[in-house]
Amino acid sequence: MILLKTLKIAVRALRRNKLRSLLTMLGIIFGVGAVIAMVSLGNGARAQLEASIATLGQNVVTVLSGTMSRGGFRGGFGSSGTLTLEDFEAIRKEVRGVNGASPEVRNFAQLAAGNQNINSQIMGVGSDYLNVRSWSCATGDNFTEADVRNANKVALIGKTTAETLLGDEDPIGQIVRVKNAPFRVIGMLAPKGIDMWGRDQDDVVLVPYTSAMKRLTGDTTFRSLMIQAVSPDAVSTLTNQVVELLRQRHKIGAGRDDDFIVRTQQDIAEFADAQARTTRELLFYVALISLIVGGIGVMNIMLVSVTERTREIGVRLAVGARRRDVLLQFLTEAVTLSVVGGALGILFGVACSRLVTTQLGWPTLTSTDSIVLAFCVSAAIGIFFGFYPARKASQLDPIDALRYE
Fold it and tell me: How confident is the model at residue 13 (pLDDT cuts 50, 70, 90)?
């Protein structure tokens, strides 16, 4: 009951200076809004990253071949083919917990169909590749193990490549020439979209890796292998088995560096997230600073209010009000300013997040946790920055306060 009466008095005092109260709340509104917007941007970017990683497939382990040194230049992992067909077959036969596996032979080449001629990515893969990548054919069918074994000239075409090369024509059954080798399109891949590196995954043609190696690239080794574990729990065990098997096959002794590298989806996610974490933290701290500045504004106005109402405080103390009553009154005014400003700031932040998504196309994700946190922080700022002015008001001497002009 006492708190309710104190709140009514606080609201009445704030309404006497509506413009000043509104201007004071602006700092809190913009601060809370900035925190909500920055957290929403960070959550949206993280969700987009997770979605991009999910397009790689589920429970996938990637093996990259070793490095290359030439003319003083040292390439990164995958620049030199140290993974052989025998390595691939050994992994499929000897490693437990493998749900599917496929090599990758990457190359860019000229594609021709009709009077169209474009440059696109050609990937030689195995028949398990679509299952490993959780990919499907929108129309047509995947090539078979027999197509891989016989190096048949069949292909799966991505949506972007099909539209660029063939226009509105049905790609199924069309002949696409890759480096003058005719490949028959037997399936069109379902759209995958942009990956985490900004590349269009639909601008691709998939062919059996045997066909790519014999007819297109002349490679005898692989630069990468993709292996799918049967379950998330099996990924760690599978990774250890692959490392042990390849070290044994490549005759790598104890203490020597591997000529390959094994990466899981979790490793990729942590690496990508680390790249963006610094930027997210910087934006969050900038928003937090603006919120603190808003709290300083609340303290400043409350100190002014105490000075202006010194005589009122003296009268209240003289007629029997306790010092804690005065402290509670001014503290309630500060918290009311912050809480109302925080509520308006939440609406402002959510509106800004939606505006960023609709106008700029940036992904945002506003969570309930961030809203609750922002609201609690705004209330805490009211208590923290309002306590000193409230305490100063409660410590006034009644005699001096009554004489104040």
Answer: low
